[in-house]
Design goal:
Layout lengths: L3 H20 L4 H16 L2 H4 L10 H31 L5 H40 L1
Helix pairs in contact: 1-2, 4-5
Length: 136
């Protein structure tokens, strides 16, 4: 488990990164860098919200259910994003504005699948802790 001091230190580093990214004034190229810094800083907040207790053996079914749910959602989102991407690539007679909207929808599905991957990894790691403790 992650110690509380490390959780708080990680959140503090995240706060510093987000504050630095928000207060900096950069040109057009710097906007992408600022967005990347804000997202990176937010990732440092995640240990603060993770569970503070070790998973119990009774949680195995619940954890297994969530891993399967999130994994399915992730695959559906990635599959839909790929399908939309292929539709945008193959459609030649559509207007550019419609293709941009469709491409944005595909990017949104890909983003949801990408975020679901982190939650899947979190629940899978907690499930593996339960399996490891029960093998001993």
């Amino acid at each position: 488990m992650i110690r509380p001091a490390l959780r708080i230190a990680s959140a503090f580093v995240g706060l510093l990164i987000v504050s630095a990214a928000i207060t900096s004034r950069l040109d057009a190229l710097g906007i992408a860098l600022n967005v990347a810094l804000v997202i990176g800083g937010i990732l440092f907040f995640l240990p603060l919200f993770a569970s503070w207790r070790a998973p119990r053996a009774e949680d195995f079914e619940w954890l297994n259910e969530w891993v399967n749910r999130l994994r399915t959602a992730m695959v559906v989102c990635y599959g839909t994003a790929l399908w939309i991407y292929l539709m945008v690539l193959t459609s030649q007679s559509a207007h550019a504005a419609n293709l941009q909207r469709l491409a944005s929808l595909g990017a949104a599905f890909w983003t949801v699948g990408f975020v679901a991957m982190f939650f899947t990894a979190y629940f899978a790691s907690r499930r593996s802790v339960v399996i490891r403790e029960n093998q001993n």
